[in-house]
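Usage

Read records sequentially. Each one opens with the input sequence:
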Amino acid sequence: MASIAEQLVGAIAGNMFWVVAGCIAIVAVIFGTVSSMVINSQRERTKREIAAYIAEGSMTPEQGEKILKANNED
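and closes with the structure output:
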């Protein structure tokens, strides 16, 4: 049993660069996905708020359209 553990540790130590690079890549993908989810949810929230302002009469549809177009230029 000890020889299997020694082989495993040796294999990981020999490939430490690839293990670290793989971990960094996984973290980058997860961070990018979460960031995209937050941005999209905030964008949808803004659209709902503008629609509510238009519905209550605080804003004209033209003003709402201008805001949404300005928001999409990013």
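Summary fields computed downstream for this record:
- Residues 21-72 form one domain.
- Helices lie at 2-14, 16-56, 61-72.
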